[in-house]
Amino acid sequence: MVNDELRALAAEVATQLIAHKQVLTLAESCTGGLVSAVLTEIPGSSEWFDSGFVVYSNQAKLDMLNVKDYNIDMFGAVSEEVAADMAVGALFQGRATISASITGIAGPTGGTEQKPVGTVCFGWADINQPLITTTKHFTGNRAEIREQATKACLDGLLSLTINSDL
């Protein structure tokens, strides 16, 4: 279930998207659509939310978002390079003016020494601003990591929309 903190943060993001006349699309992997779900709980979200892609497999990332296979091969699906490709690919799939992407390892398995469980990469793309990527490391169980990743994605969107030039 979505907690009150995420609901409040989603409402702030929605307010900023409306204020700046932005339309959002999302590309989610390890969160499985959780960010999209939190945002679309808000009545009237169709005004500022265009689409959400759940691209769990590498093939879905390639097929749906034009992620470069080179980036998956060289850096892995959990990388800022792939998060960047996902954000840009999502941005140009519909009427969006801003996008966010998440790719990570929610666990309990799948981690490595270089990329342990809880490693999550993000991308934020805006047609009027430079692309932003970052990597965060979360702790907890699968649900907790997904929730933390959702919050970090929303925080990034809030920061991006507040600093929007529109």
TrEMBL record:
EC id: 3.5.1.42
Pfam families: CinA (PF02464)
Top-rank EC class of the record's enzyme: hydrolase
Keyword hit for Membrane: no
A molecular function GO annotation: nicotinamide-nucleotide amidase activity
Domain CinA C-terminal: 8-159
Gene3D superfamilies for this protein: CinA-like
SUPFAM superfamilies per UniProt: CinA-like
Keywords of the record: Hydrolase
Keyword set includes ATP-binding: no
The name this protein goes by in its record: Nicotinamide-nucleotide amidohydrolase PncC
Organism field: mine drainage metagenome
Gene name in the database record: pncC_8
